[in-house]
Amino acid sequence: MKGRNKIYIPLLLSIACAIGLILGARLNFDPTDELFTANPKKQKLNRLIDYIDYEYVDDVNTDSIVDVTVNKILENLDPHSVYIPKEEYARVTDNMKGDFVGIGVSFYNIQDTIVVIKALEGGPSEKMGIRGGDRILYADGKKLFNLDISEDSITTRLKGKANTKITLKILRKGIKDLLTFKIKRGVVPLKSVNASYMLTDKLGYIKVDRFSETTFTEFSEAIKELKAEGAKEIALDLRNNPGGYLSEAINIADEFIADEKLILFTKNKSGAIEETYAQRKGSFENGKVYVLINENSASASEVVAGALQDNDVGTIIGRRSYGKGLVQREMELGDGSAVRLTIARYYTPTGRSIQKPYDNGNESYFNDYMRRYKNGELNSEDSIEVNDSLKYKTPGGKIVYGGGGIIPDIFVPKDTDSEKEKLTFLLRGGYMSRYVFYILEQNREYYNSISKEDFRDEIEITDQMINDFDRYISQMNVGVKPTSDYHKPLLRKYLKAEIAQQLFGTNVFERFLNEDDRIIEKVIELSNEK
């Protein structure tokens, strides 16, 4: 594939990585602390901003000056020390939580009307029977349609404190009168374990999307269910996982590593070392584990992969990971904004720092994917650059390397099919989602009546749907031309997977996508050899 399309997905994931997703600790400093108030450099900056505020010839938004100044300061430190403005802070924080309080629906705003995509699993709306396709017209008697307001404003109207009630008036296709739902707002889980199911009669599969506050709890429930189904081995999929809470990654690693074994250690600027050991009997210490990684597996994902690899536990499969070994600590700034400042480096049990170099600036750092791509590393294990001075040996005698990312034990090349990558971009980028929603809307009663068991055999992606999707994407102007006749089977698969996601959730969605997946096929092959 030529041009910029081939870097869309990795670039987006790399940017996501860059906002500092390891939240190993939080610290709120007292703004009256002598360390800050007595600092003459801080006083100098304050005087300059005050001078501009009071004397500059034109009116100036000094808040924006402060934001720019803070960003410039952090840019000169490292790629993962970042400033989070107050207007973004709540969203960023919510994304790393394992839940939120609300009614629990995802929706589109179509022709100034709230149309439910799906009632979120485990939320109040699902329990009350709200379905995809329902139109929410009134909330507590107040009109919600034809208001020309943003989705954020709509969300604010539907959210509220836990256990407060809201009365919704809903229009449902096929029913003449409006339906009334009295819903008590409650905790809606935001799952980070996207899928959990059996690949074979002995091999279970778990996909962790990110490490949020509830990841370990979700992971433990998934392990328990898979073991009940006969799982003796686990494929832990951390591909495209940009990281998150370090504590959650440590807890997951502890499930596979024997007590008193080192999981990782951190070292700060003064050289102080803090070690973290496996502390409890894990539920899968005696089972076989395969960890799936790729070039977009970062930070907390690398903690898990590195801890297992350095303890000679399981097998790491895929491609070299991203290479983020910096630990951030969050500090609120008192006005709703915050910074995440790098306060230490983490090291795997053998002593490896897997942070890739950032000496050439942030732009070069975040363009590292393109360097790997051009060097052929994504397609050939022999093209992976290693530094012999950063060679380490595990207790079992395996050679591992520091200097940037986790190199897998078994390499699986990236699929070089550019057409497939285009389709994957359209799927993961959300462009298929709205089109599929339109498909469902054409016969909502039928689609809502299909069971998971009947879905695979009953739903067919027709040539008409394919042609309509081609026209839809052309109108969207996303710079990606859909597909050739050769790739129509793949497009059918992706569209069907997206329908499954909107009807049944991510577990069924991932099962569809994992069919014919190269890395998963390799895991199954290895499992069958035992």
TrEMBL record:
Gene3D superfamilies the record matches: 2-enoyl-CoA Hydratase, Chain A, domain 1, 2.30.42.10, 3.30.750.44
Gene Ontology annotations of biological process type: proteolysis; signal transduction
InterPro entries documented for this protein: ClpP/crotonase-like_dom_sf, PDZ, PDZ_sf, Peptidase_S41A, Tail-specific_protease
Membrane-spanning residues: 7-27
GO molecular function terms attached to this record: endopeptidase activity; serine-type peptidase activity
Keywords per UniProt: Hydrolase, Membrane, Protease, Serine protease, Transmembrane, Transmembrane helix
GO cellular component: outer membrane-bounded periplasmic space
NCBIfam families from the UniProt entry: prc (TIGR00225)
Assigned protein family: Belongs to the peptidase S41A family.
Protein name: S41 family peptidase
Organism: Christiangramia sabulilitoris
